[in-house]
């Protein structure tokens, strides 16, 4: 029998660099700490955990015996529901034929990076999976620097500098990806930001991908700007992506979508995506698509559910933000989603005295010494040696602060959602209170460092 030489290598150079996603990695670390008997406040995982709307659950159950492959582009009534919902949101007619359904928006983004030409301009910081997806599509990332305070706002000079740097370094920046409201910052673009980005992309013939997975969790109408609204969506090279996971707390069902503009560019890219999908994922789950068709409906019951979700996320996220600010951390007020992105740089002297010089080390210290799980800014592209506004950043997610267990999620979840819209009604969120207390204790430890 022949022998195997491990040193000969079996993986490609790119595959050898693959690492477990940071969000999943910290989730496993929390479980390990819990298994040791250590209590951990979980602010590290961005999975929405509200009870799923009852009609959506019923639709999934009723469709549980559908086992046949659905069309590659998706169930027609789901494509119609997404088109109608987005037509209302974007104030522009979207046709069902422009919509492609996939098992989550993640594979759609990966496929787009794979089929589109050129390297990618990416705001710093950005969601942990964007950069690995880009790199494994054999493309280069050129970071667009963002505002020191909110770590989100993009200026004309910052995006032009990123483009010029890409060209000067031998790259070919032809794609830009944006995400608003943002993971990790919780910030959202203003209309002025969107105008700067769209004008830049038009000027340089750049394809603009707008990941709007959190678009429905916006804390005010002033923070809902998108490059895909109105007739401008069909003007140029734009693609909108979204999904079921965040607003509807159904990440495990894996339903995402992409919407392509009604022009020659859109038709060409959509045709390539469908060919790619036919050889890759074939189709999203049939029962999940049936349920998603109900979820994306513009019915009064779904509109009510969406408004309750936003209200509860807003109350919890802003409560955490206010506590962080009171602790003396550098943090901008979130505008949507369920993330807060504080910097501990006001405590640089104390952190360095503890031997902590990176956000990764800060993240480990917090979970091991203080029982607080949060993701380091470095996994979102932050440079620990870069601008001070980006140093010692941690992403904190509020999505795990509502219910102690799956059973509690459904025992009192609907009542909690119903109460959320009335700001006069206090909400009993024990995990939120515990997280604030744990953060205050952690900051207290830092203040006590000589």
Automatic annotation (TrEMBL):
Molecular-function annotations in GO: pyridoxal phosphate binding; transaminase activity
Xref: InterPro entries: Aminotransferase_I/II_large, AspAT/PAT-like, NHTrfase_class1_PyrdxlP-BS, PyrdxlP-dep_Trfase, PyrdxlP-dep_Trfase_major, PyrdxlP-dep_Trfase_small
Keyword RNA-binding: no
Domain Aminotransferase class I/classII large: 39-397
SUPFAM superfamilies, A to Z: PLP-dependent transferases
Annotated keywords: Aminotransferase, Pyridoxal phosphate, Transferase
Family per similarity comment: Belongs to the class-I pyridoxal-phosphate-dependent aminotransferase family.
Record-given protein name: Aminotransferase class I/classII large domain-containing protein
Species per Swiss-Prot/TrEMBL record: Trichoderma harzianum CBS 226.95
């Amino acid at each position: 029998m022949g022998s195997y030489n491990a040193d000969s290598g079996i993986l490609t150079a790119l595959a050898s660099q693959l690492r477990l996603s940071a969000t999943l990695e910290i989730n496993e670390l929390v479980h390990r700490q819990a298994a040791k008997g250590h209590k951990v406040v979980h602010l590290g995982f961005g999975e929405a955990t509200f009870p799923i709307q009852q009609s959506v659950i019923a639709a999934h159950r009723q469709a549980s015996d559908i086992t046949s492959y659905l069309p590659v582009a998706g169930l027609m009534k789901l494509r119609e529901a997404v088109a109608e919902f987005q037509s209302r949101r974007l104030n522009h007619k979207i046709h069902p034929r422009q919509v492609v359904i996939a098992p989550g928006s993640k594979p759609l983004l990966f496929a787009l990076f794979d089929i589109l030409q050129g390297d990618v301009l990416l705001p710093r910081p950005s969601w942990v999976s964007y950069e690995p997806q880009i790199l494994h599509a054999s493309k280069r990332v050129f970071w667009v620097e963002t505002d020191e305070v909110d770590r989100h706002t993009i200026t004309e000079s910052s995006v032009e500098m990123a483009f010029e740097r890409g060209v000067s370094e031998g790259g070919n920046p032809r794609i830009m990806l944006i995400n608003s409201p943002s993971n990790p910052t919780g910030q959202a673009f203003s209309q002025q930001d969107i105008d700067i980005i769209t004008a830049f992309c038009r000027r340089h013939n750049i394809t603009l991908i707008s990941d709007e997975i959190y678009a429905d969790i916006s804390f005010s109408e002033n923070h809902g700007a998108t490059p895909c609204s109105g007739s401008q969506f069909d003007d140029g090279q734009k693609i909108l992506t979204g999904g079921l996971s965040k607003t509807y707390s159904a990440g495990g069902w894996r339903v995402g979508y992409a919407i392509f503009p009604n022009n020659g560019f859109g038709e060409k890219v959509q045709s390539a995506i469908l060919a790619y999908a036919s050889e890759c994922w074939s189709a999203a789950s049939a029962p999940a698509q049936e349920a998603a068709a109900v979820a994306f409906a513009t019915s009064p019951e779904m509109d009510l559910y969406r408004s309750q979700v936003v209200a509860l996320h807003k109350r919890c996220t802003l409560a955490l933000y206010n506590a962080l600010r009171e602790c003396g951390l550098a943090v901008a007020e979130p505008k949507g989603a369920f993330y807060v992105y504080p910097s501990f740089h006001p405590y640089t002297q104390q952190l360095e005295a503890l031997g902590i010089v990176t956000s990764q080390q800060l993240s480990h210290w917090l979970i091991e010494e203080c029982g607080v799980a949060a993701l380091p800014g470095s996994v979102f592209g932050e440079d620990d040696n870069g601008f001070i506004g980006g140093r010692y950043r941690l992403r904190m997610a509020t999505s795990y602060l509502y219910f102690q267990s799956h059973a509690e999620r459904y025992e009192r979840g609907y009542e909690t959602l119903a109460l959320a819209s009335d700001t006069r009604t206090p909400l009993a969120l024990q995990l939120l209170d515990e997280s604030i207390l744990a953060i205050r204790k952690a900051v207290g430890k830092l203040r006590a460092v000589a």
